[in-house]
Design brief:
- This protein is an alpha/beta fold.
- It has a single domain (6-207), classed as Vaccinia Virus protein VP39 (Rossmann fold), CATH 3.40.50.150.
- Helices cover 30% and strands 28% of the residues.
- It is globular, with a radius of gyration of 16 Å.
- The structure holds S-adenosyl-L-homocysteine.
C-alpha cells in the first residue's frame, strides 16, 4: 500500500473510530479530540496498519498488545475527570500509543515499560510524531516511580492481582488511579481516588481483558 493510500484510509478509519467511541459512551470532548489528534497506525507494524482503527487490541511484538481504542479512551476519560492534568504516570507503555493520547491531556507523561525493544520503538514513533512531553523509561513499573511522584493520574495497562498501597500513595490528593485488577479471564477495571483527607475511595467498573503485569526488566 502506498503512503498516501494508508493516509486516506487512516483519515476515514479514524473518523469512524471516533463515531464508534461516542456510541460506546465516551463523552469527554477533550478525550475525543485527543483520540482524533493521535494517529494509531504509526505505532503498528506495516503489515497490520490497515486494522489500526478497528475496535480491537492488536499485536505489537514481544507477545504484547496495543489496547483497543475504547479501553484507551475510557481509561483516559476516567483519569481526566474533566480537568487538565499536570503529571501522569503510565505503567505498561508498550508501543507508546496510550502515552501519546495522554500527552494531549497532560503537561508531562512518564511511561514505564519493562521490555527494552518496545521502549526503543515507542521512542522513535513518538519522536516522529513530534510528541515531546512523554518520557519513556525501561523499568519494572509494578510499584510505580516514586522519584517523580506525586501524579495527578496513574494509568495501568497490564492486569495486577491487587493494587499495592505504594502505588496509591503516589497519587496527589484528588488524583485518580485506573487499573485492571484480577487474573486471566476474571478482570475488572478499578478506579482509586485519593481523597483530600488522605483516604482512598475505590470503585469497581466494567470487565476487561489485559495482558499480565510481569516483574523484571528485559
Ligand atoms: N499502553 C500500551 C499497552 C501495552 S500492553 C499501548 O498503548 O501500547 C501492556 C504493556 O505492559 C506491555 O508492553 C508489557 O510489556 C508491559 N508491562 C507488563 N508488566 C510491566 C511492568 N512490571 N512494568 C512495566 N511494564 C510492564
Amino acid at each position: 500500500m502506498s503512503v498516501s493510500g494508508i493516509g486516506m484510509t487512516s483519515q476515514r478509519a479514524r473518523m469512524r473510530m471516533l463515531e464508534r467511541l461516542k456510541e460506546q459512551g465516551i463523552k469527554n470532548p477533550v478525550v475525543l479530540a485527543a483520540m482524533n489528534a493521535v494517529p494509531r497506525h504509526p505505532f503498528l507494524e506495516e503489515s497490520i496498519q490497515q486494522r489500526a482503527y478497528d475496535d480491537t487490541p492488536l499485536p505489537i511484538g514481544q507477545g504484547q498488545t496495543i489496547s483497543s481504542p475504547y479501553i484507551v479512551a475510557r481509561s483516559c476519560e476516567l483519569a481526566l475527570r474533566g480537568q487538565q492534568l499536570e503529571r501522569v504516570l503510565e505503567i505498561g507503555g508498550g508501543c507508546g500509543y496510550q502515552a501519546a493520547v495522554l500527552s494531549k491531556l497532560a503537561k508531562e507523561v512518564l511511561s514505564l515499560e519493562r521490555i527494552a525493544k518496545l521502549v526503543g520503538r515507542a521512542r522513535v514513533t513518538l519522536r516522529e510524531l513530534r510528541i515531546n512531553n512523554v518520557l519513556m523509561k525501561n523499568v519494572d513499573g509494578s510499584l510505580g516511580f516514586k522519584a517523580a511522584a506525586p501524579y495527578d493520574a496513574i494509568v495501568v495497562a497490564a492486569v495486577m492481582p491487587f493494587i499495592p498501597d505504594e502505588l496509591k500513595l503516589q497519587l496527589k490528593p484528588g488524583g485518580r488511579l485506573i487499573a485492571p485488577v484480577g487474573a486471566g479471564e476474571s478482570q475488572r477495571l478499578i478506579m482509586v481516588e485519593a481523597e483530600l483527607d488522605g483516604g482512598f475511595r475505590e470503585s469497581e467498573l466494567e470487565a476487561v481483558k489485559f495482558v499480565p503485569l510481569l516483574s523484571g526488566v528485559i
